[in-house]
Every structure is written in C-alpha cells, then in structure tokens.
Amino acid sequence: MARLQDKVALITGGAGGIGLAIAQRYANEGASVFLTDISEDALKKAVQQIGPNRADYAVADVTKPEDNQRMVEQCVAKFGGLDIFVANAGIEGEVKPITEYDLKTFEKVIAVNVTGVWLGLKYAIPAIAKRGGGSIIVMSSVAGVIGSPGMSAYIASKHAAIGLMRTAALEAAPMGIRVNSINPGPVETRMMESLETQFAGGDAAMGAGVRQQFVERIPLKRYARPEEVADLALFLASEESAYITGQTHLIEGGQRAG
Ligand code: NAD
Description:
The protein is of the alpha/beta class. Helices cover about 45% and strands about 15% of the residues. The chain contains eight helices and seven strands. The structure holds nicotinamide-adenine-dinucleotide (NAD). The site of nicotinamide-adenine-dinucleotide (NAD) has 28 residues, from helix 1, helix 4 and helix 6.
C-alpha cells in the first residue's frame, strides 16, 4: 500500500523548489496535496505537473492571518480534512553584515519565515486535530543550528522556526499530532542560486566560484536534490516515524559531522 494512502497534505511555498518536490512525492504515495504560494501562474503549473485529480491550490501569503485561515478552510473543503501540514514557504533575505542590513528586509524575512510558520501552525493544528492526529513539518535549515556571517535575518528566522517546532510538538502531542523540523544544507533550488550570486557581490557569473567553495565544505561534495529532502519529508509524514516528534532532522551531506 502507498505510504500516504488517502491522506491530505497542505504545503506552503508549494509552487517551486523543495515544496513542489515534496508535493510530488506525497502525491506519488497516495496523498491529495493542497499547494499554496504567492504566484498563481507557478501554482497552476505545479498542479498540472502533479495531476489535477490529486492536487489543488490557493494563492495565499503566509504572512497574512486571513490567508492562512482561508488556505486551511479551502483545503478541508476540497479534500475533506487535513492530515499533514508542511510549513515550507521561506525567503533568504540579503547577504550583508548586521551593521549594513536593511531593517525592512530583516522584518520581511521574519514575517515570512517566523510569523508565517506560526500562523500556519495556528490554523493547521485544529484542522489536523479534528482528524484525530497527523504530522507537521517545519522547514528550518542548517541555518537553524549554526550562525553564518552576512545572513542575520535568515539565521535568526531558522533558529526561531526550531523553537516554534518544539513548542508546537509539546502542545499538539496530546492531540496525536507530531511536529518535526527538516534542516537542509544547500539544496539545488532558486534560493541557493540567489545566495551564491549575493555572496559573489551580485555578480551571477562569479556565483559559480562561490558555489564551488560551498561544495568543497560538504563531505559528500554536492548540494542535495529537492527530491532527497522530499524523501525525508515523506518519512516524517508517514507512520514509519510514528514515535518521532519535537526533533530537528539534518540533511546536509555530512557538513555538521566535523
Ligand atoms: P524557493 O525560493 O525555490 O521556494 C520557496 C517558495 O516559497 C517559493 O515558491 C516562493 O514563492 C514561496 N514564498 C515566498 N514567500 C512566500 C509567502 N509570503 N507566502 C507564501 N509563499 C511564499 O526555495 P526553496 O529552496 O525551495 O526553499 C523552501 C524552504 O526550504 C524555505 O523555507 C527555505 O528557507 C528552506 N531551505 C532551503 C535550502 C536551500 O538550499 N534551497 C536550505 C535549507 C532550507
């Protein structure tokens, strides 16, 4: 039997990168997937790719309370309930030291990566509780367990995401809901390309050199593929992880081993 047979999953930031890979993986394992993001065009393409009988979408900005409430309501109306919530939407912000970092950018990163996760939890937990339990995954990062010069907002936000995950795990355990974080190192998506270019001072061509430096620091000598993060997200959503909650799960090619 498929590992998520008849389950319903809601994935924020589901139109691209890691979110879309998770949606595709869940759908392949028998789940219905409800995707939210800020770009309707990208959402439509994602639903086409997965198959409209297994997927639907809503345009929803995770920083807005009403959008979070509506996305959960629309998901439940469409697929009859909610079993799995993946708080995946996130932005990287800029690469600058704290002394030069723009306050508005800092606040935007916190709004999407922290307030957005909190709002998602606020509305998803009651819906999952109505089903008698389920699984929640918060997309943090290796940036949630270490510092990194130039990325203050992102680092702070991904640390905060772990705090939210742990608190939600304790609050939701009596409802049969498990909550875990996934903490990837570099993954092959738009976000890493943006960071490489920013670390290269805005020069996309020089970004290739930055990428090489990043890869050199990874024992497995490559970035993760989004599909590999999706494999971990599948395990954490499935019954195979039934006794795992409140934990961080690093997927980073061995970078933190040394
Ligand atoms: P991505 O930019 O490809 O995908 C992020 C998605 O979130 C996009 O589709 C974007 O439109 C959406 N989004 C942005 N702001 C939003 C908002 N306000 N409301 C709703 N959706 C919004 O990046 P990705 O690499 O797929 O990142 C997914 C998650 O994984 C993020 O939380 C990111 O921080 C985390 N992560 C990524 C990496 C990496 O190397 N790519 C590493 C560790 C953690």
